[in-house]
Amino acid sequence: MANMFGLIVSGRLVQTDFTPVSETSLVTTILDVDSINHAVVFLTGTTPLPVGTVAVVYWSWPDPNAPPNWQPLGHISNAKPSAIFKISNLKKLHELSSENKFMSAFGQQQICNNAQIGISIEPEANAQLLPNSEAQQVNSYVTFAQKMLENLVNFVASFSVTQDQMTPTPGVSYIPLNTLHTWYQNFERRLQQNPNFWKN
User: Fold this and answer.
1) Which of helix, strand or coil describes residue 119?
2) Which of 49, 108, 113, 189 ranks highest by number of CB atoms within 10 Å?
């Protein structure tokens, strides 16, 4: 299992020295992590992952005062044999959180002064539970768009007046509020049908 995975960090040789921690988990250490912005994890091709599984990739920043705190980065699979992970935006965690549900994947280990990449072979369904999974990102975009649109409609509606209350103001255009409501309903319907429709 140790030769199944490789790691590339900019300006360094390929690492394949993953150490097994359990039957389904491996760890490798990366030295001098201050200058690292991205890491590439890939299947070497020597052995495919078991059918129905993915390799979930975790990152642990060095913290001399605490054991590793594993942060999920994403996953690779036989269908997606490599991935680039941005690690520069991850924050160092100085205390272990009791909410860290990923800690058990690699167990409580000795304090480490170097960054670590952990790989855990897990059922495919677990990939959807990752914080940055594509399904969750789409749901996040949909939720953001809906909240933004609701805010816009509510904001504009707060300025609505009836035709009797309107005073003519030269140079100012007015849009009927029902036009905005119709647009909102159409946009929301299209967003539900295809969250990426706006990319076309």
Assistant:
1) strand
2) 49
Strands of the sheet with 25-30, listed across from one edge: 19-20, 25-30, 115-123, 53-60, 71-76
Residue ranges of the alpha helices (H) in the chain? 134-157, 177-193
Cα–Cα distances in angstroms (integers) from residue 197 to residues 11, 34, 118, 132, 150, in the given order:
39, 39, 36, 21, 19
Check: CB of residue 82 under 8 Å from CB of residue 40.
yes
According to DSSP, the residues that pair with 82 across neighbouring strands are 42
What's the rounded Cα separation, in Å, for the pair 184 and 194?
A: 15
Q: Is 151 in a helix, a strand, or coil? A: helix
| Each residue's pLDDT tens digit, 51-106 | 999 999 998 876 667 776 788 888 999 999 999 988 776 644 333 343 444 445 55
